[in-house]
């Protein structure tokens, strides 16, 4: 019979922690993310998503440095935000190359969005350096030497990263 009161007590402690941490850190986190993304609206969305992920954790009692955890979650979400934005820009650039008056059909748009989502999911399975090497190679059109310099790795490692990404995105290729 002690389980229910104990469970309610833990829930109350959890809610108190999450509420006080939100009040204490939301403004700070939003400002920090704003410096990364440059948009107040995007920063607020990313900060809210960060707290949503924090609230989704089963056990918050072990968290000793909440701001460090919030920073880690926010950086990952920001990286995902940038990756989606880069894919969106690539799609828009592709649309801009189409002849004037040739609008994509609903089926083409749907297929392209599905392909982008599939590629995004495939890239999410890779290491951050492999993802970045692929994006810099394919979307920024940088050479392997410049990518290697940016990532602090060898040119042969960049080749391996790009090969991993290509294999993940197009397994039958």
Automatic annotation (TrEMBL):
Gene3D superfamilies: 1.10.1740.10, Winged helix-like DNA-binding domain superfamily/Winged helix DNA-binding domain. Residues 118-169 form the RNA polymerase sigma factor 70 region 4 type domain. Belongs to the sigma-70 factor family. ECF subfamily. Pfam families: Sigma70_r2 (PF04542), Sigma70_r4_2 (PF08281). PANTHER family: RNA POLYMERASE ECF-TYPE SIGMA FACTO, RNA POLYMERASE SIGMA FACTOR FECI-RELATED. It comes from the Bacteria. This is RNA polymerase sigma-70 factor (ECF subfamily). Keywords: Sigma factor, Transcription, Transcription regulation. CDD domains: Sigma70_r4. GO terms for biological process: DNA-templated transcription initiation. Residues 23-86 form the RNA polymerase sigma-70 region domain. NCBIfam families: PRK11924.1-1, sigma70-ECF. GO terms for molecular function: DNA binding; sigma factor activity.
């Amino acid at each position: 019979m002690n389980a229910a009161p104990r469970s309610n007590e833990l829930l109350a402690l959890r809610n108190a922690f999450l509420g006080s941490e939100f009040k204490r850190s939301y403004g700070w986190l939003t400002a920090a993310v704003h410096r990364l993304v440059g948009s107040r609206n995007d920063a607020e969305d990313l900060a809210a998503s960060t707290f949503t992920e924090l609230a989704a954790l089963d056990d918050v009692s072990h968290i000793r440095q909440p701001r460090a955890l919030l920073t880690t979650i926010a950086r990952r979400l920001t990286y995902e935000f940038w990756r989606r934005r880069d894919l969106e820009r690539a799609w828009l650039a592709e649309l801009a190359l189409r002849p004037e008056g040739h609008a994509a059909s609903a089926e083409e748009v749907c297929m392209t969005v599905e392909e982008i989502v599939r590629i995004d999911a495939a890239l999410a399975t890779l290491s951050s350096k492999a993802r970045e090497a692929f994006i810099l190679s394919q979307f920024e059109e940088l050479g392997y030497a410049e990518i290697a310099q940016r990532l602090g790795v060898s040119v042969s490692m960049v080749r391996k990263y790009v090969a991993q990404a290509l294999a993940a995105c197009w397994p039958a290729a």
